[in-house]
Amino acid sequence: MESKGEKELKQTIVGYVLGVLLCFLLPGMVLATEHPTLLPYKVEDQILKGKAEAKTTVHVHVDDILYTSQADESGSFSIKLPQPVGMKSVHLYILDIDGYKENQISYEPTNPTPTVEPLPSVTYVGQTENSFYLMTSPDATIYASYEGDIYTGRHQLLVPKGVTSEMRVYAKTDQGAKSETTLLSTKVPAKIAIEPYAFETKQFVGKAWPYAVLTFKDEETGAAWTVVADPKGNVAFPYTPTLETVKTGRTLQVVSAGSVSTKTTAILSAYQPSPSAAYYLLVEAPQNQIAGLTYPNSQVLLDDTICATSDATGYFQCDVTEMQEPVHEVTFKHDEQSRSTFVELPARPESFPLTLDQPISSEHPVLSGKTIPKRDFRVEYDGLRFPLTSDENGQFHMAFPRQYKGEIRLSVRSLDGTFYEVRSWTVKDRRPLAKPAMSFNGNTLELTNPLKGLPDVTGKIIIEHADGSFDAQTFLFPKRDTEGQPVQITGIQEGDRYTLTLVTDEQDVRKATFEGVLHPLTEMNLDSFGPYDQTLTGKGEPGTRIRLEMPIAYDAYNSGGYTIFEGTVSKDGKFLLKTASIDTSKTRSIDYSGWMRISITRPGTKDILKYNRQLTDETVPAIRIPKISDSKREVLFKSDDLLKSADVRYYKGETLVKTVKLDLSRFGFYRHTWDSQTSRTFKQDGITRIEVRGTNRSDMTSDWVSTSILSTTYPPLTVYEMRFGETVLQAKTAPRKKVQAVIGEQKYEAIADTKGLVTMRLKRALTQQDIVRVTIRNEAGTAKTTEKRPVDYPVQDIHWSEKKNKIWFVTQDTHLRPSRYTFKINGKEVKLAGTRPRSVFTLPKKMKAPFQVELTLRNSDGTARATLKKTIRSTYQNQKVTKLTASAKTRLIKGIAQPYHAVEAYDDNDMNLAGVDLYQDQQFSMKAYRALRIGKTITIHSRDPFGQRSIVSLKIKDDIAPKTPTVSRVTSKSTRITGKTEAKANVVVTYKKKAYRTQADAKGNYLLRINAWKAGETVSIYAEDASKNRSATVITKIVKS
């Protein structure tokens, strides 16, 4: 009965075979033009997913199984595996455009499982006269610590003998795997123990030490065999002695390799039949017989037929000369007891019974036929392996993706699991010849063989023309593995008929004939166009794509270039060609003296027609002269045509002073130097205007083109002084000139009036950090920039102190410059005197209110810029500071005073605490240099620029919260709560929304007596001083006691 695993394996094989057959039986299916891909997967995934062209078949090889899937309409496919993919490689088949296997791509999981290396062990083998001998695996190094020294050795190590019998050791492999450090005793050396020979398994087994290298030696024959113990020290030596040796028995010597040699024996006793070893047989290939030992006088049956009877010694032999079947059943009968086994004759591929139903080819990728029933095979194809099993009738069947080359190898599995190759076949290429790919390059037909891997292919083509004539040509497609060079057939005309015959150069000749009508591409017809047109129209073959490179002339120093026009011909045969970027500046034009480059293609084919066409000149030249400044000495001019000659005329005012005739040949920019001998400029010789005209190769002459010489002299520019805070910028220049200004990121522009005055209203007030850049340009367009910075601040108000007989100009500028101002009292100019601290000046005589004052700011040229007028009606009053506050906690003193006053704070000992100078802002905040003592009084002085003071007092209040209280551990059995906080502070304890109060003593200790409170509830505690300042709250939880 089949196991579950065998059943699943057979179902999987049937599935992929049917899938591959389905692909094979549907050769007309749509083939993928894009290669399929597999999406990333992990070792634990059981479903593989990927992308391919919609509705195409995909082949995937995993763990010796070929799976087939079909992509859905979105191009997705998936394959379910019988178990997680694990660390196995996944191979994805790639098919060519004709549906044949072209390549395969291998994939690995994205999360590979790290290889766990076995940890090596260290064994004490024995000792020499002076050393202890240690061993480990061949790829590891031993590290030993013995009596204060460290010793190392690869694979083996000799440690000098000392007094102690223990050492600490570990081993480390070349890959970095390190064993644990162990304490190794040198009292007992390692030993070898080999069990008696086992006839039923034909081997010696035993125990040594890990990685021990043992030699089994037959001293009678001199034969020797080397065996290596596994990492656990297990020894297994397969040994098949002759029948004579089995009859008499044999003792083998077993010796270990290394600096210390350990010896023992392996005993093969003379064979005696027993229930566990009823027979011992050998296949003697040279004699074509099976021989062996069993019970005396026992019948020996070969495939249920008596072949021998053992003699008195138990010896027998059976002849197998005529037997082709490699596996046979041998049965031993003795005393009504029977024992059976299978034997396998040496592999003989030439005589192995196996036939194919049909040869394997590109059109029949199927391995099917008849062989021995119920045998396991392995198929190797293109580097991959596939399992194959014959059924009870010996039939086998396996299909592959179509492929036109490669080799298939078939191996049979022996009884011991070894595979022996019995057949191999080369896949025959029987693909039908395909019609060559046809394309046109002008009137030349190009033929390309679409199939790779073919032998030499001879072709013959007959071209029949419309007039009844014909051309014939023979050619060769040479054998190749890649796309070859096309064969060219010239002289093709529209409507030609062709007959094409292909024949392969091979034993089984393949032949194919193709017929049809040829349609090479034809030239397009272009409508007329202008020099600056951005689109072109015309007629051509419907559906074709046109690319036209048009020669152009630039208004620059480069002599020309090309503009590309592209478009597709519509169904009605009309086309509209456009450029990639539209240029309406007319800085370039079509060069009518050049050649057009035209390329016409058929989308989806390789057909192409390329040709050049010379433009026809139908217009007079268009002359353009760039701007010319008077500092130059040459004229540059540009034509949209190839000029044969040009005339240049120079003027002083309206007077013609010189005419020059130029003979030209090249295309692009033309130039003429005014005076090449003296190198004088137009400005030096007074040239004011130039005229140019040109004549092209068609003797068509343009009109005269005139340009004026531009002056490089800059107009005068004076930028008036600016004050901080102003929003108007003024400058002086020539009438009606444009002036530009830049302040930070903001740009301004204005035109001077008829008197040359420029006024710009700014979007914000000027600051101390601003740099004002004012620019003016000459006729040639060259810019000249002047930089200015604002100075001083504007005066905001004027105050008078009758007592001090001084005047105060209220401004942010604490040092007003009197020289910039004119000051008048009651209409008479007054000279200001004094050191002007805080912009305060002493008047020349005593004044009585009321009186008129007038302050005028003047520009550097003496013109008035701004005037401030005011009637002084009373003397200036110094007011006390209001809204005054002070914090002992932060040491901040805040309040409101008059603008531009100096505010100072003093303690009760008249020691200065803080100070600040005010500007426009009346609010102030200053931090005391020292702590503000609670309960003490401070005084705040407000001093105006005249030196007058106002004084106000303030008592410092307590605004410092008590120290956050600590709290003792509170349990469900506690009868009091204790802690520490600020001395004499009130302590509030809240439990279940009820507050309990107590007071801390002089040291800050507090105590509250309570009844036992419920476990799990919370208690909050805070402290509060006499000024009602509250500390942070502490929360504690009542724990169960």
Report the major sheet.
Answer: 8 strands, antiparallel
How many H/I helical runs?
3
Poorly predicted regions are: 1-32
What is the number of beta strands?
A: 85
Measured as a percent range, the helix fraction is under 10%
Terminal Cα span:
72 Å
Beta-sheet strand percentage? over 45%
Q: How many distinct folded domains?
A: 11
Q: What would the principal axes of the Cα set say about the shape?
A: flat
Radius of gyration: 56 Å
Structural class: mainly beta
> Can you give the mean pLDDT?
88
InterPro entries: Big_6, Ig-like_fold
Organism: Exiguobacterium indicum
Domain Bacterial Ig: 961-1034
Transmembrane segments: 12-32
Keywords:
1041 residues; mainly beta; Immunoglobulin-like; disordered N terminus; Ig-like_fold; transmembrane; Bacterial Ig domain-containing protein
Topology:
Elements: H1 4-25, E1 37-38, E2 47-51, E3 57-62, E4 65-70, E5 76-80, E6 90-95, E7 101-107, E8 123-127, E9 131-135, E10 140-146, E11 149-154, E12 156-160, E13 166-173, E14 182-185, E15 193-194, E16 203-207, E17 213-217, E18 224-228, E19 234-238, H2 243-248, E20 250-256, E21 263-268, E22 279-284, E23 289-294, E24 299-302, E25 305-309, E26 315-319, E27 327-334, E28 337-344, E29 355-356, E30 366-370, E31 376-381, E32 384-389, E33 395-399, E34 407-413, E35 419-426, E36 437-441, E37 444-448, E38 457-464, E39 470-477, E40 487-489, E41 497-504, E42 511-517, E43 525-526, E44 535-539, E45 545-554, E46 561-568, E47 574-579, E48 588-590, E49 595-601, E50 608-614, E51 623-624, E52 628-629, E53 634-639, E54 643-652, E55 655-663, E56 669-673, H3 682-685, E57 689-696, E58 705-710, E59 717-719, E60 728-733, E61 738-743, E62 746-751, E63 757-761, E64 772-777, E65 783-788, E66 797-801, E67 806-810, E68 821-825, E69 828-829, E70 840-842, E71 851-858, E72 864-872, E73 882-886, E74 892-896, E75 902-906, E76 912-917, E77 923-927, ...
Parallel strand pairs: 52-58
Antiparallel strand pairs: 1-2, 2-5, 3-4, 3-6, 6-7, 8-9, 9-12, 10-11, 10-13, 13-14, 15-16, 16-19, 17-18, 17-20, 20-21, 22-23, 23-26, 24-25, 24-27, 27-28, 29-30, 30-33, 31-32, 31-34, 34-35, 36-37, 37-40, 38-39, 38-41, 41-42, 43-44, 44-47, 45-46, 45-48, 45-49, 46-47, 49-50, 51-53, 53-56, 54-55, ...
